[in-house]
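Database export, one record per block. Field names are fixed; values are copied verbatim from the stored entry.
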Amino acid sequence: MTMDAVKAIQYYINRVLSDTSGMKVLLLDKETTPMISLVATQSYLLSKETFLVDKVENGQRDTMRHLKCICFVRPTEASVRALVDELRSPKYGDYYIYVSNILKKSMIELLAENDENEVVREVQEFYADYYAATPCLFHVGLTPAMHPLFAEGHSWNPGALSRTIQGLSSLLLSMKKRPNIRYERNSAMAQKLGQELQYLMDHESNLFGSNSRDNQTQLLILDRKNDPVTPLLTQWTYHAMIHELIGINNGRIDLSYVPDIRPEVKEVMLSQDQDTFFKQSQYLNFGDLGVSVREYVDTYQSKTESHHQIQSISDMKRFVEAYPEFRKLSGNVTKHVTLIGELSRIVANRQLLSVSELEQSLACNEQHNSDLKSLRALIPNPKIAPENKLRCVILYALRYERAQSNSIAELKQLLITNGVDADQVSAIDVIIRYSGTSERQTDLFQNENLFSRGKNIFKGLQGIENVYTQHNPALAEMLEQTIRGRQGLHWQERLPNLDPKARPPLIGNENGLFNQDIIVFVVGGVTLEEEMAVAKLNAKFSTQNVRILLGSTSVHSSTSFLSELSTTFFP
């Protein structure tokens, strides 16, 4: 079975639209709309004879009884209520209802009671209750506005826990997995999620299969608090830079704020499926990206020139046949040139190269005096944005929290003196309470004992390919060591089995892992730097038949990470 999140949802969408022939309408709810838009284009929907896409909540739709209606909604009270209203006064001839997760018996009865016109032909569960951001990354779409993650401190908000279980269980059902669950020992939230998911799998054994586990699949539930560094860093690869500096909302990018922007690129879509240049360039660093887009523009120009030479009927025929592709290429070139131009402007205006160099030093190397000197010079610089100054001080506080000679108090005061809002500065204490040394399970900075310090210094002496991309996410290091069969007992201790009777996974095997599917789920948000690391590990270990899928409650930028924590009280 696939371990590709995008293909898993596309399979269901294809089934939904292909099983019902003829002209049809597709009704979605406010959550399934972005889920579908991530993986299916308007032209694909049209090719399946879907001539109208609308919201089930929209009561102003025209009556078209000659059309069939496909409804694809989440099994929430609001969506079922909207379906009930629709069935009481049907606007279409036949209704085929698909829900994205397990449907309660009471909801089925409610739909049946209200189908007095007998227009419902089918009700089915299709497990596509998550957002497939990329083939190896999915999330459940938790936002502070809709589902705040935390109740108080390190505990689940009940609504967020419920939504996360629904999303994660849907993913497992869509991929036909019943995994062995392991969780980070120091995380009550990871353990609680694992327990609730295990209960659901046992309770719904007719869906998940019998009690026998799938020994080929491990679900590792991690907690963001064990690595607060990765979401705080400036990114330098194409996809991650766009997310961090401009913002991506379910594949859509809003560029309407850019001065003199052309109307056709005020809002653009990013899709690996539909955009070859993006698929090839998403992991390129900013330097290589400039070369890549230059070559892309040159290709476009050479094609343009060849189209100017229309001298015969056959030339015209070739041009007309190529025209849709030509127009698509033209739009794509404009999109990427605009995006890269805007990224360049932001990097220069915010002086992100100097900010990033300090961030990387704080994240990767132990050099207190040098770091402190750099911070004292950076904070008074009026050209550096307040949020970037704050991120650097947070990284300093996380690294040197236990150092007796640390200057955290001095740096906080320096931030306030230089115009950073006191409420923003309070984020430093929030982060320490959320994921300071006493909360983390691992020696994240390799500076807590003599042996670690020696390793860290040695790491700093090795040749560095790029000073701005030295950092490797902790999640990636853990996965690589696990797959290679290194430090097996260490990871068994840190990530115990939820079921103590379960057979320990073969991570102590010195030959490494073979024939394993690993789903890593991070409570508290994941980053596109981690997604890139997982994509590269999948390519690296494909010969061992190891496949990794990364999931989370949300996909973070540094802004969304700090914003989520700022609304929570950590005692």
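Remark 1: Residues 313-349 form the longest helix (37 residues).
Remark 2: The longest strand covers residues 64-73.
End of record.
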